[in-house]
Structure formats: structure tokens, C-alpha cells
Hints:
The protein is mainly alpha-helical. It contains 29 helices and no strands. It has helices at 89-93, 107-117, 138-152, 156-169, 175-186, 190-203, 209-221, 225-238, 243-255, 259-273, 277-289, 293-306, 312-323, 327-340, 345-357, 361-374, 379-392, 395-408, 413-425, 429-442, 447-463, 466-479, 484-496, 500-513, 523-531, 538-541, 588-596, 603-607, 637-640. Helix 11 runs antiparallel to helix 12. The N and C termini lie far apart (64 Å).
Amino acid sequence: xxxxxxxxxxxxxxxxxxxxxxxxxxxxxxxFQTPILPLHSSLSSLIPCASKDSFPPLLEQKPHSSFGSEPxxxxxxxxxxxxxxxxxxxDDESSDDVDEDRFSSSPIDAGLAxxxxxxxxxxxxxxELKSEERPLLVNLDLALYRAKVLARNYQFKEAEKILExxxxxxxxxxxxxxxxxxxxxxQSKTSEARAVxxxxxxxxxxxxxxxxxxxxxxxxxxxxxxxARDLFDAATVADKRHVAAWHGWAVLELKQxxxxxxxxxxxxxxxxxxxxxxxxxTLALLEAKANRHEQARYLFKQATKCNPKSCASWxxxxxxxxxxxxxxxxxxxxEKAVQASPKNRFAWHVxxxxxxxLGNVDKGxxxxxxxxxxxxxxxxxxxxxxxxEYKYSTANLARVLFRRASELDPRxxxxxxxxxxxEWKEGNIATAREMYQRALSIDTTTESAAxxxxxxxxxxxxxxxxSAARRLFRSSLNINSQSYITWMTWASFEENQGNxxxxxxxxxxxxxxxxxxxxxxxWVMGFMDIIDPAVDSIKRLLNLDRNSYYRIPDSSxxxxxxxxxxxxxxxxxxxxxxxxxxxxxxxLDAFIIEKFSLDPSNLxxxxxxxxxxxxPRRVKLPRRIRSLGNNQSPTTTPVTQSTTV
Length: 645
């Protein structure tokens, strides 16, 4: 209700009327209008928004036809607009009668409201260009593509200039903000990227979910979990059909151990966005981790139906069958993965390691070489090939491959760790320490750094430097306190030194501090109903033998998407076979000739490049990590974990 108070210059005290008798206004009257706006439960409602087609001013004129009065001047009425949102048909039918109780505040609303107060509540100034001065919209698409190509070639400065021009001419388009923020993030310019995302949210009136999502991903990487949650929530409010926001939020909750919350978010993503391969794949991995393998296979099938042209779901599915030792089925899935995406480096890498582990060394070597020929700038393929050559060939050839991998990406920690591990096995303790130092000089907060410290601790233990080994184990656990391998290695070390009481204390500490992730199996039925209520076989999926434990490998994290359909059911199972030849008739040589024009007999020539760099320079480390005496030491199983990617 709007109350209009008229104060007349007349001396009569009765001339104070609630409703004016006429439409005329005088300069001696003041009109006060107090609009009452309810607090909405979304973040975007706290940000002034407009439709995508028009941008009305902040000061809007609101007529009072119900009172029969003349509209007041725009400069006298300050009305904060509410954001434009998309509602379903049910919401539209009931939008006329909105109850104030519906917008009751909650702790989440209060938190979002507090967060929104920190955002500037104004529309950014737009470049007022005449129609003939503004370039055609097609130039925006061309400029974005050119910036993408430049960024791919590491020409970041040129790409930034192009994107800044795009923002100047088309400030209402969200794509330049997303592209510029990603380029700045790649250069570790987090504060600049954060400022770009904030500016983009203001310019797009908070209606672009992609900017909110990218901002949330950035905050998540920086460790601001609470803020990332708020930003993911804002993205889902801007567009509830934006599946990437639901999925990213769910992955965040999974990393925090909130499995039930993650499942709830994934279910919402399916509900609002329909079938999506990313969500199906993540749910399939959850089911596999919970030993519900039949449900996992069903979800992988759904993922491959959603997107037949991406290989990530095939890879994740293949790794599930690989862990269950269904080698023949896994090989068929790897073949489908490379056919779906022939240049995918993860497909060639995981397949090559799989074949090498089965004893098909020549086949594994060939697959890794093909992957390197297709992706010559990927250090991971060279790293795995170097380890393969070290095991089945010579250390000198492995050193050449390690050196080339380090030249491709000097900041790739696993390459230095694997190289150091090999030098340690060869008895070159000083060189191994130098490699570990180089790995830690890159970053001391990552999981790779934790594995490096654990491997270095084993090295010092075998070298007889007991105090240094203890310090290194402790430093590793400070980075990753959930590492079972590090805790048990440290306990075994103390036990070997005769400190049985201390060893038992370390084991007890691990079980006390570890994070228990409890998955609710009863939720599966509800989720299956969301996917397809008409499937009769769903109930049978809940009655499965759970006699084997499945652990999702680390390499599955490198496959963020999902893919292709499969007519064969891996759950039916084919007998395991170590024969590299596939029963499907997949001809690998013909495939690479057709797709890449590669001669299978010349893959070794593709690998031959001149050597340029020598052993890396020495790097200074923190005081508590010191290089101590040299000694020979045998291999150890825990250290091999540090070489995985």
C-alpha cells in the first residue's frame, strides 16, 4: 500500500488529507512514496536486474492509478527493481497472489543477504555509442574466437586486449567476462579474475549463470568454500536449468565429504536440466565407490546415451571394469573411447598403462607413443612412457624422456617426482634429492607435494637420516592428513626402530582424525525414480552382491565429461583376456592412418628430438627440509604412488 501525504501551505490544520481531492499538484506539496519490497531468498534478487532486451534506469516512475493520483516525478521516487526470473507454469499461475510469508527469511537467506551487501548496487556505466559507431554483433563472435586461439598459444596479453575491447563494446554480453577471467586464472592472477567476474555480474544484472559459476570455481580453488557455495547458489538462481552449476556445486560438496548433499544437488540438476552426461557420470562413480556396480553400469549407460561424442564416460566406465578385472570389457570400452574422441590424451594414456600392466608391453608402448604424437605438448604421456622404458628397457632412455617431459611443462610436479624416484632406485641419491627439491619448489600445498615429501621421507629413512625422515613424514601429513600410505609408512618406520608404542600411537591418530564418508544406500531408490520411473529392472539393481571393494582411481578426475552409447552390457561379462586383439575387429593401425595419417612403423621417429636441457638448477627449500647424507636404498611400494598422475 502506498500512502501519499499532502502538506499544504494553508494555515488550516484540517488541510492534511490522505487522498487528494484533485489531480493537480503544486510546488508546495511533497509526495512521499515508500514501496515495501519483500526479501527474496535468492542472491540475484538483491542485485538490480533488468531484462535482456532493455535496460531501464534505476529511478523508475511508478503510477498510482488505483488512488486516482498523478504519477510523481521520476527524481522523487526511488524504486529498487526486483530481478527478472523464470518461473514454471505453476509459479506463473500463482504469481498474482504472493504471500509475504512465502519470503520468510532463513539462515541461508540471511547469509546471502549479508553477502549481497558487499556487492555494489549499481549498474555499470555503459559506453554510449551511436548505432553507426558500435561494431556488428558478428564481430563479437570473431573476436572471442581469436582470443581463444591466442590464449591456446599462450599469447595472453593479446587475448586480454581483445577481450577488454569486447567488454567495452558489448558490456551486456557475459562471454568476454568468462573468457577473460579464465585467462587471468591461468596466469594465477586471481584478484584480477575475481574483479572481472564481479564486474560481469553487475553488467549482466546478475542474470548470467556462467559468470557466477566461473567465479564460484575460482573461489573454490582458492579455498573459499563458503563463498563458493554462495556463488554456486547464485548461478542456480540465475538459471535453474544451468546444469554445470549444479554439478560443480555437487563436486564441491563431494570434496568436503557431504555425499548426501552432493546427491541431492545432482538430482536437482537432473530435475531441472534433464539428462546430462556429467551428472550421470558423477553419480555412476559414486555408485561404484559404494560397491553398487550394477547401478554404476546403468548410470554409465545413461551417460553414454546423452553424449555419444565424448570419451570421458567411456574412460570412467572402462576404469571401473579394469578395477573389477573385466579386462576384455575394459579393452572394448577403451576402443570406444578413442573412437569417440581420437585426440583425447587421457584415452591414449589410460589405455596404454592398462595394457602395460597386463603385460602387453609393446601394445602399451605403442599406445603411449600414439598419444604423444597426437598431443606433443602433454608431459604426462612422456612421463608414463619413461617409467615404462625404465622398467623394460634402460634408465638412460627413461632419463631422455623425463628430460623432454620437464621441458614441455617445467611446473608439472609428477614428472620431477617420478624422475627422482627413478634416480633413487638407480642409487643416485643426490640427484633424487635434487629432483624432489625441484618438485617442492613449484608448490608445497598440493597433493603431489604431499606424495613427494612422503617419497623423500622413505629415501632418508633408507639412507639412515631418521630425524629428517620423521620431519618429512610430518610435513607430508600437514598437507594431506588423510593419506593412509603416509601414516602407515611412518608407523612402520617407528616400528622398525623399536618404537612399538609410538607406532601404535601413529596408527591410532590416523583412525581418530580420518574423515568418515557415509553414503546413504536408501537414497538410491529415490534417485532411480527421478531418472526413469518406468524402468522395471531398477528394483532389482538394489539386490546385488557386494563382495568386492571398488576404489575410484585418481585418473578418473581428469575425465570431466561423459559420452557415447553402448549396445553391449558389461555386466553380462566376457571372459578376461590378455590378447591385445579385440573381438570387435578394431584395427588400431588402420584407425591412426585414417584419423591422423600416422605411419605405425614410424612412431619411433616421431619421438626423436634433440636434447637441450641438462639437470635442473638447484632450488632453495625451507629450513626444516634439508638435504642430508647420501646412501643407497632399495625401492619401496609407497613411493610408486607419487608417480601416478
